[in-house]
Amino acid sequence: MTMVFSALGAVALMAQYTIPNSSTNAGGGSVLMTGGEGYSVMGSMGVPGVTSMSGGAYTVAPGVIASQRAPKPDVSLVHAYPVPFIPSRGHAQIVFTSLPAGANIYVYTIAGELVKKFVNQSGTDELQWAPVENEAGEGLASGVYIFVAEGSDKSRKTGKLMVIK
Less Cβ around it within 10 Å: N or C end of the chain? Predict the structure, then answer.
């Protein structure tokens, strides 16, 4: 089965996905199904709440189009955004992405003091830090911070964060 998504009926093609060995379920309800490696895609298929299809590396279920990427094999591509983090401009979270499953993220001050520790247990390659606070629940001061991503194989990647109040 091939599905084509376009912007509000526009002629421009936004995305086309081929789902081999797909099945259709008209049982109703908004059920997220998982399948295969790569992206899980959720989207409206005609009448909301009545159709879901899956197969191959993609899953489509009633709802808003969204995607989730599978965890990465190592920490070599880990990065964070937005940098700089500016709460006065509406930034509410820092996202670490391209994470392997079970990766640890350590955030330190420039002086080497631990600010926050995270473990990626989400089943995706992203971890969201919201609210952006230290271990004591206090907001971060303006400045430069260092993050260290550590994989389960003890490989490491270091990056920088900046907070501007």
Answer: C
